[in-house]
Predict the structure.
Amino acid sequence: MSTGRDTLGWRKVFAVFGPSTNTVVEPEFAAMRPAGVTNQYRDIYIENATALSDQAFMAGAEIIQGAVDASLRTAMTCEPDYLVMGVSAITFIGGAPACEKFVTHVRDLTGKDVSVGSTSCVEALRAYGSIRRVAVLSPYYPMANAHVARFFSDYGIETVRDLPLRCKSWTDISRVTERQIAQALQQLDGDDIDAIVQVGTNLSMARMAPYAEAFLGKPVIAINTATYWHALRTNGIYDAVDGLCPLLSHLNLKRKD
């Protein structure tokens, strides 16, 4: 029996886990995947919420968090090299300490390191340079956005304003149009911010972000791009992927001394 590398994932096999209602993470990550890396997508099973509100959104996020372990156990059966998380809300809720606790739990359960959306966005902001004031776009509700702002504040980043799109179901998030996103970005922009960050992994913005960045003249970070960029760079993969913002074309993950 061969003891060599995976035939297709000869560089890295990523296990990607995200909600079963999410239809955006898998194709967006696929568009970013360089040769020799494979994305093994595993569902976090959840029912599709059809009447989201502040309270229902937070309750749904708690359900997702409770279902993560089963997804991870399934993911580990393919013997991945690394884990990539395709759900973001639960990594913001509770701020940096809660996220660190979650990441530690994942490592303890699987023995693998993981890239999560919240800290990946922070690392992306650092890679761009001195960014201290941001605006945030999300498909969430105000209560969840408050957790996003708290998370960024834990890293010294001020959320000057935010726009929760208040999508009415988990699947409705993927149906937000580019026109709606463009209007939201224009509403959020201003001379008082250094960058715009989009959160919510089922909101498709990976291909739109570089155009928005060029038009607005400041970094526009899509969370799926930041997360996959973080996973690649953490694993020593620096291939340039054009068309998906400077993160994947030339910016490297800043390393600690």
